[in-house]
Design goal:
about 270 residues; alpha/beta; Rossmann fold; Threonyl-tRNA Synthetase, Chain A, domain 2; 2 domains; eight-stranded mixed beta sheet; four-stranded antiparallel beta sheet
Length: about 270
């Protein structure tokens, strides 16, 4: 039996880039729920940020947080796993220590979440205060606003490697983290589903809109690149079976999921 396994970015993909509304995707979300097809949030957001969205959508499937740094699932979702949390990233204090060392040594200029008050974070992201507090509760990655030229950014990226860290380009921010990505955690979860239902032919579907989604899109069986009017489109020319919906955000998400279900699931 064939089943779809859906991995989705949130900001600018399932959620509207400006107001975080998901209602245009409601028809497709309802269809996925009725068909009992797993919907997995795979975002740069923190665990605490994503939990309210999961509760609002009544979605009890695993969550991939902070650009692939951690996977959480509900107890006994995978009965053979002892832990409900699997970490691929490094501790947040290590990242902040490395960033402070680089800033002091090379005079790099950037502003990270750790440097911002909650009020400043609200101003930069458009989040409400409660959501900004959740975004501030980071475990494995640090979003930064870069404040120098491209040449300095290249040097900064090179110096991060000495700390076993990498720079990922998201929608609004760069993210400093261990060199893991959304695609690696997606593949790890796929292995768990294959172990859970070995007779099922899982078809992975990935939806995203930003540079940090490219690895996930490239490794999925079906990839959906949502247009992002607020940012530059990532290079997805090497990705096969790529779907480009006509609408941005959750409207395009709804369009793509309905098309994929029609083409891949038999009545």
């Amino acid at each position: 039996m064939k089943k779809l396994l859906i991995f989705t970015d949130l900001d600018g993909t399932l959620l509207d880039h400006h107001n975080y509304d998901w209602s245009p995707a409601k028809p497709a979300l309802q269809q996925l729920a009725e068909m009992n097809l797993p919907l997995i949030f795979n975002s740069s957001k923190t665990i605490e940020e994503m939990k309210p969205f999961a509760a609002e959508l009544n979605n009890h499937h695993p969550i991939i947080a902070e650009n692939g740094s951690v996977v959480i699932s509900e107890p006994n979702y995978f009965p053979y796993l002892e832990a409900t949390t699997t970490c691929f990233g490094c501790d947040y204090p290590q990242i902040i220590s490395a960033l402070n060392n680089l800033r002091n040594t090379f005079n790099f200029r950037f502003c990270g979440f750790n440097d911002m008050s909650i009020e400043a974070l609200v101003a930069h992201t458009g989040l409400d205060k409660e959501s900004a507090q959740r975004a501030h509760t980071r475990l494995f990655s640090e979003p930064i606003l870069w404040q120098q030229d491209e040449e300095s950014l290249e040097r900064f990226t090179k110096e991060l490697r000495h700390y076993d860290l990498a720079l990922t380009h998201g929608g609004r921010f760069y993210h400093v983290m261990r060199p893991v990505d959304k695609g690696q955690s997606m593949n790890w979860l796929l292995q768990q589903y294959q172990k859970l239902e070995p007779q099922t032919q899982w078809i992975t579907v990935a939806l995203g809109d930003s540079h940090n989604d490219v690895q996930m899109l490239a490794q999925a069986d079906i990839a959906v690149l949502i247009s992002n009017p607020a940012g530059s489109a990532p290079d997805a020319s090497h990705i096969n079976h790529l779907i480009r919906p006509t609408s941005p955000g959750p409207g395009g998400w709804n369009e793509a999921i309905n098309l994929i279900i029609d083409q891949n699931i038999e009545d």
